[in-house]
Amino acid sequence: MKKLLTTIFFIITGIFYGQNKSVNATPRKLAETKKSVVKTHVHSGKINDSVAALIPQKLNDKFGFINQRGKVMIKHQYSNVGFYTEDCNLLNSPNEKVKKFGTAQYATVRLNDVDYRIDRTGKRVYQFKESDLGICPQSYKAQLYHAYILNGQYGIIEDSKFENPGDYRQYTIYPQYDYLHILEGDDLRNPMIIASKQNKFGIIDIHNKIIIPFEYRNIKRNFSWKLARLFEVSKDEKNYYYIDLNRHRY
Asked: I need a labelling partner for 25 at 20 to 30 A (CA). Which of 11, 60, 85, 180 fits?
């Protein structure tokens, strides 16, 4: 009888230990699973590493996000959205608890005239408050090149080298376009330039090489190139979409 009780005790102890070990492991496994799901959500459908993984899209006057293959990842419900990028006002917030929402893991969206930050699964994790907004440090870098108009035509000059408008050799690109606009980017020496000729828009580089052919009615002068390596274009000035350097449409 004593031997039987001892055996039962060890069996019960073993069962309890096994259950306890399993319970202790569960939160860790859940965290790992959650992390894996988020990673899969963000990177699924990625075909270009230099382009943003989640891309804003407008559908029926509402904005959502698609992946690079065009699959809807965050449903179209917002009146406006931005790319997943840093928000310097939140990064410099006086409220330590909200600074994390200023990182590039979050995007700013607007719903019913209220601004939020959402995570990469689409969950609204922070609602903007005026008291949380800090002051952005000055980080402006002057462009090396600028558009120059001569006889109604646009060209490009490099400020540090340009002195005589009458000397064609001093122009980086001699005036020949109806319009030029240098896009904001990380590489000041090799910017992308919106160009217009005969009422069509395209993209050229600083060497006057055509990067995107002149086949668009408009190309927006925004920060999509700097933030996501994309150009926002339209062939009818009503429906806009993004393209990359290879003209792949998103």
From this structure: 11
Residue 46: both structure tokens together: 């990625």
Q: What are the structural domain ranges in the chain?
A: 55-132, 145-243
Evaluate whether 155 touches 177 at the Cβ level (below 8 Å).
Answer: yes
Report d(CA 174, CA 214) in Å as an integer. Answer: 18
pTM of the model: 0.78
3-state per-residue secondary structure call for 139-187: CCCCCCEEEEEECCEEEEEECCCCCCCCCHHHEEEEEEECEEEECCCCC
Closest CA to 230 of 213, 249, 216: 249
pLDDT tens column, 16-26: 333 333 334 44
Q: What is the largest CA-CA distance in the chain?
A: 113
Give the mean pLDDT of the chain. Answer: 86
- Residues forming a β-bridge with 54: none
Where does residue 189 rank: exposed (0-12), middle (13-18), buried (19+ CB within 10 A)?
Answer: exposed
Two structure tokens written together for 160: 């540090």
The one-letter amino acid code at 248 reads H
